[in-house]
Structure formats: C-alpha cells, structure tokens
Amino acid sequence: MKIDGKPTRTIWLDEDGRSIGIIDQTQLPHRFVTTRLATLADAAHAIQSMQVRGAPLIGAAAAYGLWLALKADASDDHLDRAYATLLATRPTAINLKWALDELMAAVRNRPRAERAQAALARAGEIAEEDVAINRAIGRHGLKLIEEIAAHKKNGERVNVLTHCNAGWLATVDWGTATAPIYMAHDKGVGVHVFADETRPRNQGASLTAWELNKHGVPHTVIPDNTGGHLMQHGLVDLAIVGTDRVTAQGDVCNKIGTYLKALAARDNNVPFYVALPSPTIDFSVSDGITEIPIEQRGTEEVATMTGKTKDGRIETVQVVPDGSPVANYAFDVTPARLVTGLITERGIIGASRAQLAAAFPERSQSR
Ligand code: MRU
Q1: Which residue range is the domain that position 27 belongs to?
Q2: Residue 121 and residue 113: Cα distance in Å, rounded?
Q3: Which residue of 228, 239, 328, 362 could cross-link 264, Cys pair, CB 3.0 to 4.6 Å?
Q4: How is residue 308 annotated by DSSP?
Q5: Ligand 1: residues within 6 Å at CB?
Q6: Nearest-CA residue for atom 2 of ligand 1
Q7: How far is the CA of 313 from the centre of ligand 1 (A)?
C-alpha cells in the first residue's frame, strides 16, 4: 500500500542483499521508523517484541529469519536450533510454523552450500504469495461490501467493524480483513470503518487507524466495548476480522476481544466474517478452545499505556494501581457457529470442516 504516495511493504530484502528491512511497528503511529534485521537473533527479537506482528507477517519474518541463520551457518545443527528459536517467539499464529516448515522442506535435503540461497528464494516466494493471496481475499470480500452498498439509500456508506489490525501492516501487503475495504474504497464504493482500539497494545487505535488514515479511508476509532452498542443501533453493516489460526472445524482464534464482537454480532444479526489466507488454517487441530495455545504476554502491556504528549514526547504511564495483579491473554477463540463466513483466497466459504476441506483439499489431506 502507499505511504504518502510511495508504495511500501512491511518487509523487504534490503538493498545490501544481506539483511531484511522492516517497518518497526512498535513506533507507530507517532513515528515511522524502518530497521534492518541482519541476524537470526534480530529476526527472533523483531517477532517477539512485535516490531513485526500479525499472523502472515510473522510467517514471512520467520522465513527470512531462517535465511539469516543459514547465511551465518548452514549446518544441520544450526538449522534445527534456528527453527526452534523462531518457533518459540510467538505460540498462537500458525503461520509461523507453516512458514518455518516450508523453509525446512526447501533446504533440508540440499547441500550446505546451497541452503542459504534456497531459503532466501522460498522466503521471497512466501512474501509474494502472501500479497497475491490477500489480493484474492480482497476481490472476494469486495463483493460482500458491494452487495450491502447496493441496498443503501442516499449514498450512505457501508459501515464495517474490525478488531485489532488485520491490515497491510499485519501482512506483507493489502492485509486480510482490510483488503476488501481498500478495494471498495479505491473503486469508489462508500465505506467507513469502525476500528476497535484493541487494548492492551492498541493495534486498532495505533495501526489500523494509521493505515486507513494514510490511505484516506474514512474511519472512526472506538473503545473496545463500543461495538455491541453500535450494532444494537444498526450502525454496523458487517464485521470483518482477521485470524491467527483457524481449526479444521472452522473455529477462529484471533486477538482477544474478537469473541465478544462475534457474540454481539450474532445477537444483532450483523454478519460476522473472518478473512484468512490458507496458511492460517491448521488442519491438525479441531477444537480451537481446548487445542490452540493462547499467548500470555507481559503484564506491563495491561498496566501501562504509551502515547504522545501535547508537546510531542512519547511517554508511557501506568494506568492500574501499584500492586494490582493483571492478566494479559493475547487471543481468544470464536466458535465456528458464530462465524457467518470465511473469506479465503479461493472464495467465501462456511466455517465448517466440510467446506474447509473442500476448498483446501491439498492441505487437509496432508494431515
Ligand atoms: O498480536 P498481534 O498484533 O500479532 O495480533 C494480530 C491479530 O490478531 C490479527 O488479527 C491476526 O494476526 C490476523 S492478521 C492478518
């Protein structure tokens, strides 16, 4: 997507040919900073600290991370250790494991001298595939927005609610949940986004709002608890969220708070769609609630908030009393029964075992 008119991606091979460039997302929305990853440790740190985040981008970063590791040492031992190091960075988004397994398959049986080059080639393909997948998701999801727009009177806009950031910052480009929105906007279909702020890390307020703002998409940031009220008053036409893992039976794991939005959507007959690239499907698990590991992050993310002061300084302040215990579950699971449909690169399908297996037979059968 474009930043101030300049096409930009979230991750790229640096001009030096030896390192990876990323946007440091921990600095947004107040500072646009890019940084270079030159080693396995840099890549692991970038994923863990959420300089790069969002399931598809985590996968791409891990793939490049394995290349950086092999460039330094292409032995079997180092390859296995690098795989384990990267896999341990974040537990919930399955794209991480998917991408690492893809890289392993690409390099494992090659002579050492060829491994780094093969890893770089596969990592580059994964990044390009992600862009193509998200474009396809955008084209399918666009039809949903256009159908709703066709029934609007007096040029009213289609109101889409989204949670967290499943935008282009969470992928290599386009985003998943936002791809249909960008395509609708670019086509002149009136669309307006309610972006949940998404405490504790505020990916909605800091990242989704930043993206939409840069692209000129009308939007409103709302506190996390507002969506239900808006839905009761007919102010949300549909919800589209991203996901970190979809199980074989169609359960959807996504940023904490997604489940509550799905419940509110069901109670108010608001269609609740999940946009996902196929690498986010984990055919090895069925019951999302019991089988998906839910990341628990540092308590400081809940106990503090970071923002810009009136005189332009970035400051972090504590928002809970000294000594109050806090909990920080990063994801929750929305059961398949609450999901209206899955927007995939192969079309919009029901959140069910049969429809997932029919749409992605090559993935489901390899299980
Ligand atoms: O903790 P994050 O910021 O990595 O969580 C991101 C999300 O939950 C996204 O909705 C999900 O990864 C899908 S991104 C296309």
Answers
A1: 2-128
A2: 14
A3: 228
A4: E
A5: 53-56, 93, 164, 166, 170-171, 176, 203, 242-244, 254-255, 330
A6: 54
A7: 27
Asked if residue 227 and residue 97 are part of one domain, the reply reads no
Integer Cα distance of 152 and 164 in angstroms: 27
What is the per-residue pLDDT across 299-334, written as a single tens digit (0 to 9) for each? 999 999 999 999 999 999 999 999 999 999 999 999
Specify whether 264 is located in the same domain as 345. Answer: yes
For the entire predicted model, the pTM comes to 0.97
Distance of CA 49 to the CA centre of its chain: 15
Determine if residue 237 is left, alpha or beta; phi over 0 gives left, psi from -120 to 50 gives alpha, anything else beta: alpha
Mean pLDDT (whole number) for 112-136: 98
Is 90 exceeded by the pLDDT of residue 5?
A: no
User: Which of 244, 274, 296, 334 has most ligand 1 atoms within 8 Å of CB, for mutation?
Assistant: 244
The verdict on residue 329 lying in a domain is yes
Task: Report the distance separating Cα 43 and Cα 66, nearest Å.
Answer: 9
Q: What is the pLDDT of residue 13?
A: 98
The pLDDT value given to residue 4: 81
Residues 267 and 339 in one domain: yes
pLDDT of 232: 98
The percent of residues in the chain predicted with pLDDT above 90, rounded, is 96
Residue 149 lies in a domain: yes
**Residue whose CA is closest, atom 15 of ligand 1?**
166
77 lies in the same domain as 201: no
Mean pLDDT of 30-48: 98
Alpha-carbon distances of 67 from 51, 117, 119, 124, 128, rounded to whole Å: 19, 8, 5, 10, 16
Structural domain includes residue 133? no
The reported pLDDT for the residue numbered 67 is 98
Residue 121 sits in the same domain as residue 250: no
Instruction: Choose, from 130, 196, 237, 244, the residue flagged as catalytic.
Output: 244
Find where tokens 């935008």 sit: 167
Place of tokens 């998200």: 134
Q: Is 130 in the active site? A: no
Number of domains present in the structure of the chain? 2
Cα 137 to averaged position of ligand 1 atoms, centre (Å): 16
For 262-293, the pLDDT digits (tens) are 999 999 999 999 999 999 999 999 999 999 99
Query: Same domain, yes or no, for 201 and 116?
Result: no
